[in-house]
């Protein structure tokens, strides 16, 4: 018995040691092979960055002398294409969402909507974007940094201009943000707040869209269930007033879900992606050269240090605890430093002509 005991203790020790090594191996292994594959960088902290120290650090990383890095651009475009595929999935179409299929709300995955013929008839037949890649795209954020920026001409010089949340245009803002628009997004809450959900007079709403001409009006009709009826009222209203009005298209909730997964794998933890980040991602797939303006989420100007309004057109506070704008900016800044897209901060040079 005495001779067996040391042998038994040795076996128990070796078994315990191997068990520890096994769990160490598991803890250091990627939990999700897909996430490990799509992420080509070390994950950022999953918390929004706050404080002036972080802003100063970001400004030190930023360089206005930007040059495109073709290899990095193609790599990130391929990553987007393999993950979310804007050309086939970004917009709800009759080809990718047939009658009888289900649309799962990206903001409330427990709820879905069956596609019946009347709803199907509101979908565009095929994706509305140019089949070949566009040479250049500008995505215009609504940050207060655009006020007095004189960036209007640069913005309008792009082949394709994307604007967010029906931000106001016109002579008052033309010098700073331009007027050209090919695609503009709108949050359905805008129609509820400004136009009483289109349950009363609709002409004022239609007239407010005249600055956007025949652009595409992109609505997140299937992010949350309440978005659907009001988005359809927008569709039918513009169909009734078809003369020189934007064409309504619907953002695909499956695309948003896939895109959110990609950005989460890169360190973004937020309740929702901002419209600006979604549009910037879309632009990288659609365009060979991507320029971002108005994407500065901090309260003071990066060069003059003057206090900024929340938007270039007003100082209305943004909703809290929905987006992580500072973390989104850091992710976009990383793409800027890697030559994937051009993030413009500050004023634009004024031409002498």
Q: What can you see in these coordinates?
A:
- The protein has one domain (71-343): Alpha-Beta Complex (sialyltransferase cstii, chain A), CATH 3.90.1480.
- With 353 residues, the chain is an alpha/beta fold.
- The protein contains 14 helices and nine strands.
- A seven-stranded parallel sheet has the order 7-6-5-4-3-8-9, with helices on both faces. A two-stranded antiparallel ribbon has the order 1-2.
- The protein has helices at 4-28, 33-38, 52-61, 70-83, 86-89, 117-120, 152-156, 171-177, 188-195, 203-208, 227-240, 253-265, 275-286, 325-337, and strands at 102-104, 112-114, 137-140, 160-163, 183-185, 216-219, 247-250, 290-293, 342-343.
- Helix 9 packs across helix 11.
- Residues 11-44 and 47-51 have low confidence and may be disordered.
Concise synopsis of the structure shown:
The chain is of the alpha/beta class and 353 residues long.
Task: Set out the fold topology.
Blueprint: H1 4-28, H2 33-38, H3 52-61, H4 70-83, H5 86-89, E1 102-104, E2 112-114, H6 117-120, E3 137-140, H7 152-156, E4 160-163, H8 171-177, E5 183-185, H9 188-195, H10 203-208, E6 216-219, H11 227-240, E7 247-250, H12 253-265, H13 275-286, E8 290-293, H14 325-337, E9 342-343
Parallel strand pairs: 3-4, 3-8, 4-5, 5-6, 6-7, 8-9
Antiparallel strand pairs: 1-2
Helix pairs in contact: 9-11
